[in-house]
Amino acid sequence: MSFKMREGLKRIRWKWLISRLLIALLLLWIIGDVTWVILSFHPPRLPLLRSPVDLNLKYEEVNFVTEDGVKIAAWFIPADKSNDTRCTITVCHGYPGNRSRFIDIVPALHRAGFSVLMFDFRGNGESTGRTTIGRKEVNDLNSAIKWLCESKPNSSLGIGVIGFSMGGAVAIMAAARNKAIKAVVSDSAYASLDRPAELTLKRTFGLLAPILGVPARITFRLMLGCNPKDVAPYRLIHLISPRAVFIIHGDADVKVSVEDAKLLYESARHPKELWIGHGIGHVKMFVRHRDEYERRVVNFFKRYIITK
User: Fold this and answer.
1) How far apart are CA 84 and CA 73, in angstroms?
2) To the nearest 10°, the Cα dihedral for 7, 11, 13, 16?
3) Peptide bond before 52: cis, by omega within 30 degrees of 0?
4) What is the DSSP letter of 189?
5) Of 137, 245, 107, whose CA–CA distance to 182 is shortest?
6) Residue 163 main-chain phi, psi, to 5 deg
7) What does the alpha-carbon distance between residue 264 and residue 276 come to, in Å, rounded to a whole number?
8) What is the rounded CA–CA span in Å between residue 232 and residue 229?
9) Which candidate, 113, 112, 130, places its Cα nearest to that of 121?
């Protein structure tokens, strides 16, 4: 075999190896994107680390079923008879999470005379089903409000909702259609579901996100069952008026941009309030400014849901 033939064969082998390597990398990229999205719709169920007992509060374990057949687990914490406002605040956790995640907000609400309803969204905690990161979770909240009105009528003269992250987005979308909800506090919510998804892709792939995120976008849309742009609290928030909404966000949030809070506030009608914390991360406003947070939230609910 001549020298030229040997060199030609080497070049062919190298081209073959490089092409196979590129194909392998392409497959790994696609499989990685797809797997990441699929796992995001099947997050690990986080255990309930605390209960109202840890706060010396009496409570009831309750369950109810949504319109689409999901069994929801919840706690109902009744107000003290000495200062019962006959109103209830429903607390909505984020993704992933469970009802114990934001239990520290309960004592302030309880001291103010509110009953509190806390539940696990579908696919989280002790509830059945699979998460949809906000799309079908609206059914969960609406079912919680329905259970509250039917089972606790004496605690349902005024109903408010406070939601964190995904829970805040769900609270806005539910309140837009559900007139039983008299006021909403939304902490670190997305304006539309595609926005935090794109933010995650940019953090992962940087400037190449428009290209490298294509498999993830396609898979996300298929798993969600719709365009994530259509899961959009900012398009519905104006329907809450003349009921009130209070938007809370930190300007150092890297999971959901503070621009989402601004878009929500701009899209809302009065009465509305906005509180942006400087240097505060995702759902960290309560931790960093607990006293002020409790005072603002309690006063907001007293102002807008207690029947005069």
Assistant:
1) 24
2) -170
3) no
4) -
5) 245
6) -130, 145
7) 12
8) 6
9) 130
Query: Per-residue pLDDT for 1 more than 70?
Result: no
CA 102 to CA 92: how far, in whole Å?
8
User: CA 153, CA 139: separation in Å to the nearest integer?
Assistant: 20
Q: What is the pLDDT of residues 143-197, one digit of tens each?
A: 999 999 999 999 999 999 999 999 999 999 999 999 999 999 999 999 999 999 9
Residue with tokens 């005024």: 158
Nearest C-alpha neighbor of 182 from the set 74, 288, 59, 85: 85
Domain ranges of the chain: 1-40+194-225, 52-192+231-305
DSSP run (H or E) holding 63: strand 60-65
CATH superfamily of 52-192+231-305: Alpha/Beta hydrolase fold, catalytic domain (3.40.50.1820)
- The DSSP result for 80-143, as a single string, is PGGG--SEEEEEE--SS--TTTTGGGHHHHHHTT-EEEEEPPTTSTT--S---TTTTHHHHHHH
What is the model's pLDDT at position 14? 61
Question: What's the pLDDT tens digit per position in 243-266?
Answer: 999 999 999 999 999 999 999 999
